[in-house]
Predict the structure.
Amino acid sequence: MTTTRKNPIYLDNSATTAVDPRVAQKMIPWLTEHFGNPASRSHPFGWEAEEAVENARAEVAKLVNADPKEIVWTSGATESDNLAIKGAANFYKTKGKHLITTKTEHKAVLDTMRELERQGFEVTYMDVEPDGLLDLDKFKAALRPDTILVSIMHVNNEIGVIQPIAEIGEITRAKGIIFHVDAAQSTGKAPIDLASLKVDLMSFSAHKTYGPKGIGALYVRRKPRVRLEAQMHGGGHEKGFRSGTLATHQIVGMGEAFRIAREEMAAENERIRMLRDRLLAGLKDMEEIYVNGDLEQRVPHNLNVSFNFVEGESLIMGMKELAVSSGSACTSASLEPSYVLRALGRNDELAHSSIRFTLGRFTTEADIDFAVKLIKERIGKLREMSPLWEMYKDGIDLNTVQWAAH
Amino acid sequence: MAYSEKVIDHYENPRNVGSFGKDVEGVATGMVGAPACGDVMKLQIRVNKQGIIEDAKFKTYGCGSAIASSSLVTEWVKGKSVAEAAGIKNTQIAAELALPPVKIHCSILAEDAIKAALADYQKKFGGGEVSGAARVDPAQKAAD
């Protein structure tokens, strides 16, 4: 019998998460009753909004063991990445013009780097190893006397691997190089201790951690002090780092989301790890499936699997009862396979055939069991339809076939 | 991405999926595309002595639109002469399935699959009349 379901199961928590109801509830009064501008100093409307903003700032700081004075509000991780990278590169450009990042960064980092190249900076885009992780010796070898900034993500959005940011920080600090970390995917998933990490700048997002969209933050280290050139000019909010009226309700939401993350992440991650392992165990006996990225150095929320001989977009279409993402960027109309999986050295077929499952706070065991059953059924159907599967079963090595490129 | 109802219908209920046995007579095969590009189509036709396509089967690795395009052409080529089949155009496939611009390549690939199968037919079973007839516009042909 065909597995069917009315509403799709949400397994795309790395795209965004639902706002936790506790967060939503806490936000609402700051839209209606307490609508003041936190920058208003002359009346209680402003005072109470400012207090709420500072309480939220303290919560964000506490999750990552930072000083609240080191937290700058932004509109999200993309803006934080832009402010950190452009701001630091431009401030320190008299010291050098070389920047380093990896090929598997989020587009918010890669595209910002491209823009800086147009402005005259030189950027090294480092390869990662087949497990998705940066090799530290290769990283050391890429450093130059004129390197001023390194930007490496904490947790990868597609494959969930955790980069060795503690080790990278030791290397950059010793050489006086600014180190920025995009942590959009890691808050509430991997522990972050900025008191011990030698990270200078770190980008955060609320909506990947059960907070609202449209709000994020940038950590800017005070000791040793990191300077930035502002990218948004105006009223001088956020100590001049980022002008613009603060969105009190969004900020309150982010603070509450990060408070919940701090208090619940240990137990939550264990539960999610069990669910992820259940999903993996359910799929393990299938033929020709490949897990993308290291399984140990990885957040428990992510499982990225290539189902060989099945194309990603038809797979997603065939699994419409599951809300998941495909590594085949066919879905975004560019027809290119995932650049992250290509950077891992995956061939085009496997890159095209990948599905990212990302579990979250509201994923249940029943969801996973349903997903396993459905995936097996639909993969089987699509493979019956696949000429590549047929050739594989006939013992033909697909690498020896002369394909007519189109 | 939103798919047209026809694409979804062909995707969920693909027509004529499969392969002919190796000993079936009159079978020609066209395989086009490349795994690296995200789609591969295999179209097989079984042609009788009179040059009429009696049956067709497909297997496709690709997105929903690629699967739908190949499923559709198996329906269309059945009962047609090889000459008529050669006249099927990607624009007809795209129009029938209401393919969006980013999926036009799926219809082009399906047309290529027909051409490749017909070329294989010609190679295997000769019949110079196919190459000549292939240039005949089906609209014109229908008119005479």
About this structure: The CA atoms of residues 36 and 68 of chain B lie 20 Å apart. The beta strands of chain B are 27-34, 39-47, 53-61. Helices of chain B lie at 5-12, 64-77, 82-85, 90-97, 104-125, 129-133, 138-143. The two ends of chain B are 43 Å apart (CA to CA).
